[in-house]
Structures are given as C-alpha cells and as structure tokens.
Amino acid sequence: AEEALRQSQKLEAVGRLTGGVAHDFNNLLMVVSSAADMLQRSDDPKRREALIAGMRQAVERGSGLTRQLLAFSRRKPLKSAVVDVGEQVERMRILLERSLREDIRVSIDVQRPLRPVELDVGELELALLNLAVNARDAMPDGGELTITVFSEPTNDERICIRVADTGVGMSPAVQSRVFEPFFTTKEVGRGTGLGLSQVYGFARSSGGDVTVQSEEGRGAVFTLCLPTTDKALAAEVSAAPPAAPRAR
Ligand code: ADP
Predict the structure, then answer these.
(1) Helices 2-41 and 45-73: crossing angle, nearest 10°?
(2) Among protein residues, the one whose CA lies closest to atom 14 of ligand 1
(3) Which of 45, 122, 191, 194 could form a disulfide with 184 if both were Cys (CB 3.0 to 4.6 A apart)?
(4) Where is the Histidine kinase domain (predicted)?
C-alpha cells in the first residue's frame, strides 16, 4: 500500500511534468533560436563560444525532458498474482481514507462469495487510488465514496469493483473522453489526465474493462470488472492457520 502511494505520487509528478512540458519546450526552442540570431550577428569569438554553449545546454535540457516522458510511457511487465479482490480492497481502506479528506465518508462493501482473480496487485492499488482521488476532487464540499465489490449478477465469471461518489458528475461529452491519456478538465498543475488511463490500461491488460456512468450534478460511478480464474489463491493471500491436530 505504501508502494502504491509512492507510485501514485511519482505518477502525479510525471504528470505535472507532461503538463508543463510543452511550455518548457517552447522556452528552450526560443533560447536556441535567439542564440542562433545573436551568433549570426556577433564577430567576438568569446561571445560566440558562450552562445554555442548556451544552445548546447538548452538542447540537453530538451532531450532530458523527452527522456523522462519516454520513461513514463514505457510499460513495465505485469507481476500477476491470484488474489481475493475483496480482501485487497479492504486492505486499502486506511490508505484510501488518508488520500481523501475528513469531509468525505468512505464505505466499503464486499459482497461474498467472490472467486479469485489473477492480477497485478500494485496496479489494482494504483487504480483504486486514482479513482478515489478523482472522487475526492469531484466533491470539493464533501460527500460519500462508496466502494462495492461484487460478483457480476449475470455472469459469475467476473468480479467487479464499483466506485461511486456524490460529486459534481460529468457531461456526456466529458464521459466519452475520460479514459483518454492526458484528457483532463482540471487546471494545469492539478490534473495530469493520466489517472483514468492507468485504470483503463490495468483493466484491459487483466482481461477486463472499466465503464463510467454519470449525470452532471449527480455524482459518478466507475465500474471495473475483471475475469476470475480457476487457479488457487496465492499462498501469501490465503494464509490460513495450519489445521489443529485432531483429538483422538
Ligand atoms: P485527472 O484526474 O488528472 O484530470 P483522470 O484521467 O483521472 O485525470 O480524469 C480525467 C477527467 O475525468 C478529470 O479531469 C475529470 O474531468 C473527469 N473525472 C474523472 N473522475 C471523475 C469523477 N469521479 N467525477 C467527475 N469527473 C471525473
């Protein structure tokens, strides 16, 4: 869970970078362009040296920026484990509450029985955090965040996590774009537009999907559904105490 928090902070930092990157890039290009102009007009060898050094520096900074962007877009391989999704969500309670505000009430409802799901636990934690942080941002005056884990009624081969808030909601136009990378309605520096694309990428790479339902002024509901597996739960997760020796 600590790792998920660290990862989401990193994601946010990289996101801030991408938000400001176009601006920074433009400034660097301006530096190069005006240095080139001055270079053309100057005969002083010392001055020309300094201008060239300045251009090199700007170019290096520019390629540093693109390197960081590329590092972000590179997908790391999934580390899959067979888990009980309900248990994973319950484990996140403290972290979720800490990521929200005091005026937001969190309730978690796990409807058992649930079949096991094979997924990357780190990605699941990140997805839940991203959904919770969005819900928080959508409820500036407080509200309720309700997380429900259930077996899909029509098809018990999938386990779903429903994350519902009582926030500002979204127009149909916004709803149709929320999963796009870099789509955000938040001001520069606050939104990265990467949260829901992580959720979408996680859902798809796990063989599931994620949908949104919302009405302006009436909150939003995100539903993440994942396929179940016949494999046995990972030992670490199903750590049942050893059976007591039978009395004779
Ligand atoms: P970010 O949060 O950085 O903007 P996301 O990909 O997480 O990026 O979300 C994209 C956009 O979707 C948000 O800017 C917001 O407009 C909308 N959105 C996401 N979650 C909610 C929500 N729970 N309620 C209202 N709007 C939301």
Answers:
(1) 150
(2) 184
(3) 191
(4) 20-230
Task: Assess whether the C-beta atom of 170 lies below 6 angstroms from ligand 1.
Answer: yes
88-97: burial string, b at 16+ Cβ within 10 Å, e else: bbeebeebbb
Decide whether any atom of ligand 1 lies within 6 Å of the 134 Cβ: yes
Give residue-wise pLDDT tens across range 160-212.
Answer: 999 999 999 999 999 999 998 778 898 876 777 888 988 998 998 899 999 99
Rounded distance between C-alpha atoms, residue 51 and residue 202, angstroms = 47
CB of 205 closer than 8 Å to CB of 127: no
Residue of the CA atom closest to atom 11 of ligand 1 = 184
- Regarding the beta carbon of 198 and ligand 1, being less than 6 Å apart is answered no
Residue nearest to atom 19 of ligand 1 (CA): 134
Strand 158-165, strand 117-119: pairing: unpaired
CA distance 158 to 44: 73
Q: Is 89 helix (H, G, I), strand (E, B) or coil?
A: helix
